[in-house]
Specification:
This protein is mainly alpha-helical. It is about 60% helix and about 0% strand. It contains eight helices and no strands. It has helices at about 15-30, 35-40, 45-50, 60-70, 75-90, 105-110, 115-120, 140-165. The chain is elongated. Mean pLDDT is about 80; it is low at about 105-120.
Length: about 170
């Protein structure tokens, strides 16, 4: 692990332990970050962020690394537990203060992030084929109004047509 840059001193112990274990697992593969990216669908720069503790990896990235490293089921489960502990303890990124006009910053973000762990799982580097299915949203009121107007227009057209043709 001598080629790795030093981890920040202020990292929580759970995060430090997880990242060190992740680095050892990556070293065990013998792959470069570019090769690892090609085998896992996560880019070289994503792996650099994960392995230098600047960003928590999504669960699927850890699963992919375990698969590439040939990790057994029991060890992969232990990595899953380490991931959960690390994500809960991971230092949250500094938030940008809201602009004077009320836009931007953390205010809008807090409304959408109900669970800290879930926010990390919604990582944009998650491959689309491993992404959890999206919950169906109820139809919007506007869509129902447009549908109603179209039905009314068709009914009117049908009445006009019946009267014209007689």
């Amino acid at each position: 692990m001598g080629a790795w840059q030093a981890l920040p001193d202020d990292l929580p112990p759970e995060v430090r332990h997880f990242v060190e274990q992740l680095r050892q697992l990556k070293d065990r593969t013998g792959l470069s970050l570019v090769a690892l990216g090609a085998r896992t669908a996560y880019s070289k720069s994503s792996w650099q962020r994960y392995l230098n503790a600047t960003q928590p990896p999504p669960r699927q990235a850890v699963v992919a690394l375990c698969r590439v490293a040939g990790v057994g089921k029991d060890e992969a489960e232990r990595f899953g537990v380490r991931w959960e502990l690390a994500v809960q303890a991971w230092p949250k990124p500094a938030t940008v203060p809201a602009k004077p006009d009320g836009t931007g910053g953390a205010a809008g973000r807090e409304e959408h992030e109900s669970d800290d762990c879930e926010a990390y799982e919604d990582d944009p580097t998650l491959p689309w084929w491993d992404a959890p299915p999206k919950r169906p949203e109820p139809p919007s009121r506007r869509l129902l109004v447009v549908a109603g107007v179209l039905v009314a227009a068709l009914m009117l057209l049908m009445v006009v047509g019946m009267l014209a043709l007689g």
